[in-house]
Prior knowledge:
The complex is a heterodimer.
Chain A: E1 10-19, E2 22-32, E3 35-40, H1 47-54, E4 62-67, H2 75-82, E5 85-88, H3 100-110, H4 116-129, H5 145-157, E6 163-167, H6 175-189, E7 193-198, H7 201-207, E8 210-215, E9 218-223, H8 225-230, E10 236-239, E11 248-251, E12 257-260, H9 274-283
Parallel strand pairs in A: 3-7, 3-8, 5-6, 6-7
Antiparallel strand pairs in A: 1-2, 1-4, 8-9, 10-12, 11-12
Helix pairs in contact in A: 3-4, 3-5, 4-5
Chain B: H1 3-16, H2 19-39, H3 45-58, H4 75-101, H5 107-123, H6 134-145, H7 151-157, H8 159-162, H9 164-178
Amino acid sequence: xxxxxxxxxxxxxxxxxxxxxxxxxxxxxxxxxxxxxxxxxxxxxxxxxxxxxxxxxxxxxxxxxxxxxxxxxxxxxxxxxxxxxxxxxxxxxxxxxxxxxxxxxxxxxxxxxxxxxxxxxxxxxxxxxxxxxxxxxxxxxxxxxxxxxxxxxxxxxxxxxxxxxxxxxxxxxxxxxxxxxxxxxxxxxxxxxxxxxxxxxxxxxxxxxxxxxxxxxxxxxxxxxxxxxxxxxxxxxxxxxxxxxxxxxxxxxxxxxxxxxxxxxxxxxxxxxxxxxxxxxxxxxx
Amino acid sequence: xxxxxxxxxxxxxxxxxxxxxxxxxxxxxxxxxxxxxxxxxxxxxxxxxxxxxxxxxxxxxxxxxxxxxxxxxxxxxxxxxxxxxxxxxxxxxxxxxxxxxxxxxxxxxxxxxxxxxxxxxxxxxxxxxxxxxxxxxxxxxxxxxxxxxxxxxxxxxxxxxxxxxxxxxxxxxxxxxxxxx
Lengths: 286, 181
């Protein structure tokens, strides 16, 4: 068995996954160190497939994965990864008849927390972290969508994992809950690593040290949010009419058209945003 | 899965199951046996075994499977826990039905068909677990209605009832081979 790395990290080499004739993930390479890594991309980009492979839920067709120093292709090492992993799938189904505490406690049992007293304390800790301590005895069927999402997140947090794999964790959360999520994930990432998918560039700007942009199963960009924003330097401008040559343009609330693409010689470029960089990255290979 | 984990997980696993269909089918099986005995009809043991096994295999379908997919207690272990829980209802129901109609013991065929369903579920993608319930139902149907089959196929169609322990052994081997999937 390989030795565990001192810091949480994930290395991906030539990772490929097909579903029938569809290539969901097409030979991607990535190296992720600690902190929060945001996976951005349009629907069908392959984000969920990558996250499921990182969570050891789905085996790749080819390529190599090194997660926390272990190879998930080997059953014994996969078990070691799972002991150090928290996974939040997209729109997870829960047991409606369970209370919030029941669910987290069940997950803790399945995560091999055998000591009842410690397990209870751990369950209360994670419920507190997601702001559900006051609803611990409420049946899941009575929880709102946002509360269910936070409960599923609490289940992922059981055991203070070294690696958190989160598929759209902010889905269904209101702005205040998103803020709390950021706070919690940044704390978690300080001692491990968090890999999360999102459609929200503001989330990435606020939280992520690294951003990976995927489109069509391939990685189009990997770097810091500042680097992604930098992609759009000189390639975004505003004018009072739509530009025929612009790669993309839209009318802003200020009544100006914002254009992305190669700027005409006679216009002054605008200050780019992370979203500008993202839109350019998914349009053309980095 | 350690014995401690199995012990502690069994209770919540049982509570996670949808019991009304299981209990209703178990009651119907016992009722069918009673009706057959009361009216002097042949023992419905094969049908009782088939429907009880079908409801047992249906219990393999875990709605929270994706949420639990990356916990150290693997899918097969979690499914075994579900079968142990549901077995606490279907096996006594099979035994009671057999006692009422004085027919052959339906419990071993229930085990055989359930093991076959588990084996198929192990080889199917996780979301195909619900489809594995077609195995006991289909095998029961083959045994009941495919009378005109050539001898080897006819023996195969009733194998789960005539030699249930052989089926259990073969299914267990298939589960063992497919468990790392």
